[in-house]
Amino acid sequence: MSSTAIVTQSRVLSLTSLPEASIQNPLSGWNIPQDHPIAKTLFKEQPIMNAESLEGRLLFAIPKKGGIVPFISLMYVNKSHPGRLYEKCLALLAGADIQFRRHHRLDVCLSLNHNLALIFLPASDIPSFVAKGDIDLGITGHDVILEAKVQGLVDEVLRLGFGKCSLQIQVPESGPIKTIDDLAGKRVVTSFEVLAGQYFDEVDERLGLKGDNKTKIEYVGGSVEAACALGLADGIVDLVESGDTMRAAGLHAIGTLLDTEAVLIRAATPKRPELTQLTDLITKRVAGVIAAEKYVVVQYNISRDKLVSATRITPGRRAPTVSPLEEENWVAVSSMVEKKNSATVMDQLVAIGAEDVLVFNLDNCRV
Ligand SMILES: Nc1ncnc2c1ncn2[C@@H]1O[C@H](COP(=O)(O)OP(=O)(O)OP(=O)(O)O)[C@@H](O)[C@H]1O
Ligand SMILES: O=P(O)(O)OC[C@H]1O[C@H](OP(=O)(O)OP(=O)(O)O)[C@H](O)[C@@H]1O
């Protein structure tokens, strides 16, 4: 599919001709009447969008869920989130200073400050668009890349540290099936038929199960966890994050196919090499936001004779910055350390005689 075809399918309209009477506030997600002064400002700032205005722009795919913030009461009756990856992606775009105004009815919008357009798509559709080069850059789950069988066609350039979960084999806790081998040859329901199919092909092969005796994999688009209770499956293969859904459905995990998280992907062979420079720039910006979330800067004073021990504790990404202090034989050291280790690092520094140990959060960085 060419990028023009994507545009056509995504209801790209000139904003001046939109029939809707409201516009979504990109910060709160709530709709504002079109004649409200804030909405007027948003409309004025939004470039007019049509197929021509996408010409030559880098296309950046973002998982689309979450256009509308649901009422709180609805969140209790519906387990679906307004968009697990979507909300995090918005924070990432803001950190990378990719400005845009998204109309709540549109899945394509132009960046206000870069030669790029954001394309909001289901997470599971993003791998194949990027693999074909129709979209230059995308964010999606590592799991859906494997499910789409596009490894080799897309480069996973950056792990993003969110959207972490595992694809697990689950069976009723109180039932007779206790192991993978018990489940082999029976009925498995999943939204990941490729990965589940590959996995059980190997199990079947190992157990010598052939023809009608092989494990039967059946696809469903959602609510996978209901399949056992409905009598449709003996086991399921589904994503597990907190485990709440699995437990609520009376299931437990007997195996893990893979651990996954959100990743930034690019086409292994870009269709439009002229956009590589901008793709690199956006990649570096996103990497900077991720690193800023992952690292803190620790700064401390230490006597020069203890510097070797201190730099073993805080080696930095390349090397620590060491500056002489006015006091003889004392230096100030600053170094990036992983946020999750910062308390331990502070304890270790104090234990070897460091003083005035300070930790700073990073707003942003280039690494
Ligand atoms: N608890 C979770 N359940 C499902 N997916 C999760 C979870 N936590 C993280 N993810 C990641 O989010 C991806 C799904 O993204 P998103 O929530 O945008 O859904 P989607 O593609 O619209 O699909 P669906 O409608 O099936 O939820 C998964 O492929 C996985 O990588
Ligand atoms: O371990 P947990 O934190 O409970 O999350 C896992 C659940 O979330 C996903 O479903 P989703 O909310 O996308 O709904 P769906 O059944 O419609 O796919 C997934 O398919 C599990 O059912």
TrEMBL record:
NCBIfam families registered for this protein in UniProt: hisG, HisG_C-term
GO cellular component: cytoplasm
Gene3D superfamilies: 3.30.70.120, Periplasmic binding protein-like II
BP term (GO), one: L-histidine biosynthetic process
Location in the cell: Cytoplasm
Recorded metabolic or biological pathway in which this protein acts: Amino-acid biosynthesis; L-histidine biosynthesis; L-histidine from 5-phospho-alpha-D-ribose 1-diphosphate: step 1/9
Reactions catalysed according to its record: 1-(5-phospho-beta-D-ribosyl)-ATP + diphosphate = 5-phospho-alpha-D-ribose 1-diphosphate + ATP
Protein name, entry field: ATP phosphoribosyltransferase
UniProt-recorded Gene Ontology molecular function terms: ATP binding; ATP phosphoribosyltransferase activity; magnesium ion binding
Domain of life: Eukaryota
One matching Pfam family: HisG
Domain Histidine biosynthesis HisG C-terminal residues, every copy: 292-364
Keywords on record: Amino-acid biosynthesis, ATP-binding, Cytoplasm, Glycosyltransferase, Histidine biosynthesis, Nucleotide-binding, Transferase
EC number(s) on file: 2.4.2.17
InterPro entries: ATP-PRT_HisG_long, ATP_PRibTrfase_cat, ATP_PRibTrfase_CS, ATP_PRibTrfase_HisG, HisG_C, N-reg_PII-like_a/b, N-reg_PII/ATP_PRibTrfase_C
Claim: Thylakoid is one of the keywords in the record: no
Family: Belongs to the ATP phosphoribosyltransferase family.
Domain ATP phosphoribosyltransferase catalytic: start-end pairs: 123-282
